[in-house]
Amino acid sequence: MDVSMLLECFSGTLEFDANVRNAAESQLKQASKSPGFLGACLSIISSNEVSENIKLAASLYFKNEIRNGWTSPIADLSSRQSEKAHEIDIDERPIVKDMLIETMVHVSKKSPHCIKVLKSALETIISSDYSKGLWNELLPKSVQLISTGDLDVAHVGLICLSELFRTYRWKENDGRQELEKLIIDYFPSLLVYANDVLCKDGENVNEPKAGEALKLILKIYKFVTYNDLPFVLQRDEYLIPWANLFVKIIQLPLTEQILSKDVDVRRTYSWVKCKKWAYANLYRLFQRYASTSLSRKFEYGGFKKVYVEHFLPNFLQLIFNQIEQWGARLLWLSDESLYYIQSFLEQCISQKPTWPLVKPHYETILEHVVFPLLRLNEDTLNTFVNDPQEYIHRNLELWDNDYSPDLAAVSLLITAVNKRGKTTLAPTLKLIVGILQKNQSNDIQLNNACNIESALKMLSCIIDKLTDKNSPFASDLEGTLVSFVLPFFDTPYGFLKCRICDIISKLGDIDFKSPTLLPQIYEGILQCLNDSSDTYLPINLSAALALQTFIQDPSFKEALKPSVVPIMQKLLSMSNEFESDSISGVMQDFVEEFSEELQPFGTELVNSLVQQFMKLAVDLNEASNFDPNTLSSSEAVPDETEKHMAALGVLSTIISILLSFENSLEIVKNLEQSFYPAAEFILKTEMEDFYRELSEFFENSTFLLRFISPITWKILELVGDCNKRSGMIGFYLDDFLPMLNNILVYGAAELRQSDLHSQILFEIYQASEINSESSLDELNTKFDLSQKMMIALGTPLSGEVQTQFLTDCLGVIEAERGTLKKSIVFGVTSFNVVIAGFIINPALALGTLNKFILLEMFFETWLTSYAPNYTRTYDIKLSIMAILSLFTNLPLVALNNAGLSGIISKLGDGLANLLVKFPMAERDLMLKRVQFTQTEAYNETTIWDDEDGEDEEAEGELDFEGDQDDIAKYLSSNNDGAIEFVNNFSFEGGESFDDLEEDPLTKSVIDDVNVYSEVKNSILQLQQSDAEKYQLAFGGLNKDQQQLLLQTVQRQ
């Protein structure tokens, strides 16, 4: 490999001229396919004569080649990535692994950025090769590097060890037994190295590389204890020394050199991170292995006893000492450390054995930890003014991916009042009221306003406990609101208005006694909703959420009616400015509650919402096309969750608007037209995440119209085009099935005359492949579509297509015949394909059954197991139609030749029994349709009485063991057999016929079939033209069955 040529290429990738860059990248892509390319990259990275920026470029390219080509086969890459990837030669791999370690050692002193990039490549190789025994020499090599005495070299060795032990992170002890010996062999020396060389009684705190090395040792411990606790580390002789190391790190004082830096810079120091990981490891041991949890996955009693009884009391004293010094501003703690300290205290509060250790300190923790952490600081105030969206996420939605001490404080407070309410609620409320009284005045200054906001935030956290009907504080709530909450609707501080609205949004279930309270709330919310100050957005949003809470209150709703349109316009404007599904949720509720008032503006609303969706969708589509090979770390991957949720919210609101126009068909057609650009974009850009909502829109529009509009036919064509391009529509068939069902129901006549559209449906069916990986749910969806196509298209459906439907179905039935009595949904759904075949082409269906040698099994299962237990109207009606078709469309000789000579009488008996079941099933379906339109009342149960037992120490603790005993007795009493059905048919540990869902608002392809008319005409036809067949079918019926047939025939 020509290294000088590669040097020129890497240099070219850094050029400003795009033509030069593209040419260099093209050359590199070609060169990367040649043997020796990776080794040449490492040689460039190791060279002392190469500049740092070129080394970094080579490191990034090397990392991407490893990540894309080391793991084989390359099955999880996108098509674009796979074009760039090629499998790295097996013979070259050992050389690359050796050179990679050597290169990392060589650049460890002068090229830290290259080390970070190469570490990613090392992780890929180790995760692929080490567990397979393909890099056994790595462990001794890593230990050798650590023992050199050179901290930079040792750092590389620790990187290797950390990645090696990372491979054990998600395994449990039974699946990693070799780890126990590795811990015995290597952990003692790691502990000595951490104590004597790295910590060294605090001498190295100003040495960043020592801190980085120590952090790697802490992460090694984290990896092996994260998912399960190795048996060796449960022993006292291992637990205590490692716990002491963590405590020593926590107690190490930071130097002035570190503390003099800005807080954001300070947090990045390796020794500060070591403190975080020391706290994190101790918390993980406590939370996962030394606590009582509902799952109780791990029961390490000996370890738990030592940790809780011997280690924890002393460690809590250290924690109390740390927070006391922090509160007095004598100690600085990073956000991450504060987060874990509070998580530790929260876990102690939730656990019965450890609660007494924290209980005496609760009020101190509340006043000197929780309250200060919830108080708005200068950064938060700046965020409120300059980045309102971020303020909303962090302070109103309480959403954050980082280690946030304020969110940990919220969690601690909520756990305390919910788990230990008898002890904690009164002092919490006392502190809140005291702060509010102390800071309230006619001229509130900013400092006082921040104190008030913190107290109100605490009130918001516990408000659900105060509003509980059995709460001893419930009667005082209205007075608290009048004195300390509602007056701040008129405050000049926007962040206080936000907090007031936040509290109000949690009071929707309160039946206020004062007649003036609700109007006061109404005026305050509207005032905040229309706030146009410089910081209006958070105020508007919190007001909108408060409005949503009271939207169903009759008096509130009546007061809102005159303002519905301007409020909706305001919500649309907010939705344009702020990407949140919260606003979409408010709009959706408004549409549902005020559909009549909003109907004149329905098309305008949908047009605006479609524009908003398109803006979001374009951004999402562009973000999805980024090239991951340009990233240096996984953290750089763009997170578009917020946009995605906002887009889904907009689509849901559009659907709600559509459903409000049930009696306005012209408007429904206009709304289809308005929605078309969004649907077209979704399908042309293949945005799979929105397929379900797209289908739901057209499912509802076709249901409302009761016919298939030209727009919907065009959407079907776009779906077909999308399927031809990607072949992935079959993978999302479950999303599209509701829309396709309505196309088959309301567009059957057009489909019979349109080869284009029926072919699209068949291609969609074909795209849903049947293979060994297909789940029964996927097969159910596929067979649901095929049976509906057979019935809707009928005889115009080609024999070739019918044969494929039947062959696909029977092939799976044959493979799954052993599960037919357990997998009821699959069994009935797959059988219905054949039953539909009996309706449109009985000769072909019988012939295909005989071809698979399944005729006897099929009729036995159908007539004796399935049909007698049907509960769905659809299944009963379908079987009746199939039996009638077999009788009327095939001569007796054909039935006998097909092997049905002994089954004809069973078919007649089955028909009679189905006719008995049909009226009841039809009545149940009609009842469901009536019930669906009625509002169900739910009785809310309180947890107040159950939360606190008579024993103060057992507050909030749940005893599941007694429940488990009761469950065990119940199961034991039912062990004699499975649930029994007609004809002794049973399912053992499987599904029931109730699992066959029948949507009361979805029309089926056979809804318009008049069963009684079909039975009457068929029986009369048999009586008049084929008396012998009639006698064989119905001659053996009993008196009641014959009377039922007679009544059906005489039915008008």
From TrEMBL:
Query: Which PROSITE patterns does this entry report, sorted A to Z?
Result: IMPORTIN_B_NT
Q: Which Gene3D superfamilies match?
A: Leucine-rich Repeat Variant
GO CC list: cytosol; nuclear envelope
Keyword NAD applies: no
Q: Which SMART domains match?
A: IBN_N (SM00913)
Entries under InterPro entries matching the protein: ARM-like, ARM-type_fold, Importin-beta_N
Molecular function terms from GO: nuclear import signal receptor activity; small GTPase binding
> Mind listing the UniProt keywords for this protein, alphabetically?
Cytoplasm, Nucleus, Protein transport, Transport
In the UniProt record, the signal sequence range is none
BP-aspect Gene Ontology terms? protein import into nucleus
Query: Cross-referenced Pfam families, in alphabetical order?
Result: IBN_N
- Location relative to the cell: Cytoplasm; Nucleus
The answer to whether UniProt assigns keyword Metal-binding to this entry is: no
Which residue numbers delimit the Importin N-terminal domain? Answer: 24-106
PANTHER family from the UniProt entry: D-IMPORTIN 7_RANBP7, IMPORTIN-7, 8, 11
Specify the protein name: Importin N-terminal domain-containing protein
Q: Give the originating organism.
A: Huiozyma naganishii (strain ATCC MYA-139 / BCRC 22969 / CBS 8797 / KCTC 17520 / NBRC 10181 / NCYC 3082 / Yp74L-3) (Yeast)
